[in-house]
Amino acid sequence: MRRIQFAIKHNIGTKYIFELLAKEYPRNEKHQVRIHRQYLDSFDWRMHQNSYVCGTDDNDAVKNFFLEKSETGECVYTLPLSETPKFSQDIPHAKCRRLLEGILEIRALIGAASVTIRQRQLLILDNQHKTLIRLHVESYTIPGCTGLQAIPGRLMVFPVRGYKKVLHGVVQYISEQLRLSPVETNLLDEILVVIGKVPAPAALDVTKKLSGSLNTWQAAQILFSDLLNVMQANEQGLRDAIDTEFLHDYRVALRRTRSLLTQIKHLFPSKELEYFKQEFYWLGLITSPTRDLDVYLLKFDNYDKVLPVALRDDLVPFRQFLRRHWKAEHTRLCEALNSKRYRKLIREWKRILQRRSIQSPQTFNAKNPAKQVANQRILKLYRKVLKEGGAIAPESPDEDLHELRKTCKKFRYLMEFFQSYYPSDQIKRLIKNLKMLQDNLGDFQDLCVQTQQLSDFAQQMQDEGLVDTKTIMAMGVLVQNLVTRKETVRRHFSERFKEFSSAERVMEFKTAFSCANTLEGAPA
Questions:
Q1: So what's the architecture of 4-195 in CATH?
Q2: Strand ranges across the sheet with 63-69
Q3: What is the pTM of this model?
Q4: 20 to 30 A Cα–Cα from 228, which one of 24, 104, 175, 235?
């Protein structure tokens, strides 16, 4: 039975309401407690997006983790914990942990908001001192907020099973005599409004609506600015190493920036283009080692699972090696982000993106319609994907699949950037078809890299004198397992590409982009 909540008007006061209730129901028990509540969510608000609220209540005597359904206020779990959890695996309760894992995946919980609650509790009793119903009258203090920004107090009614008649009477008294109105808004949402936080995902919205009237420079400004916002929104999190997704999302936005920079031709003067290409490439290089080590640490449990049980302990030195090198690489990354070179890059990039127009003979595409230019580039990349993929045979070197993967990524980025220029159902279907091919190519590339990198790690650990024969043997078994998986994924490529390049699919792609070209008066 879920709780019922009522709003207490500012001009009445929670103490006055509590006294009226105690007087109306004299057979009672009274308690008072001060609670320091911290609401938790991931950086991209996954709990909020999935209609859950979680956090910790600390009343100085005990700390409790709570998980509620935001729409109903129903308490799903309340667990005593000694420390605020950071990841779902920090929750000892198995069912609660699995629920959080399904929502958060590998994202960390961070503070979303905090509030101090003064809670007056009233237990209404019968003649035998059994609790018939629980009432909480709460007032709230938000750190840093003035009295003018305070949110109304609340009266919460907690039913006790088997006493529906009592519940009805209490609710009727509150509604008719105290004249309090029910409130459906989640307390967290009220607090977020007061402190000015918007619970929106921080990830890039690649479905941004671009107007058909935009020229290419105007559209590029919007896209580049959004990508820079994503990078800067994630920068502090990657510096603090809150979770691995901060660096991942930063790098995705960086890759998209580099791709758009090179795929939309004749948009920048050549000197500027070369500077930003070089500097964003450098930024990709300095962020890569930390991300690579993140990936190996994230995959480590899977590495354990593919090994015989007798060999799993032998991988412990490898995990220690990864963690030690991760710390060193993360330190280097932070030093680079603190450098004059990085600050100059971001400063110059912001300056360019604030420019209203570009006046140069080298930038003739800047004033052309964005829809036309984007469509020409998308169609050209599509033809390149078909050409590269069609040339790959069973005996082709691995590098050919790697090059196709890179072309597919550029192709997909452009389709996602400019998808608002095409019918929604159509472009989503085309992106989905491409993604099926990309998944195969991505898995293959990951296995190629991991196979070589694990062998390199084993040699590096030997050079550092950190391993014994057992660890090297365990890593050898791991490499062989990856080689076998790589061969299987490679065999599946021809099936995936055959589906992607079928006559039906080719017609669908060419119709979508050729028609758009014709509509814009551009050559097909």
A1: Beta Barrel (2.40)
A2: 75-80, 63-69, 52-58, 28-41, 110-125, 131-141, 153-159, 4-8, 181-182
A3: 0.89
A4: 104
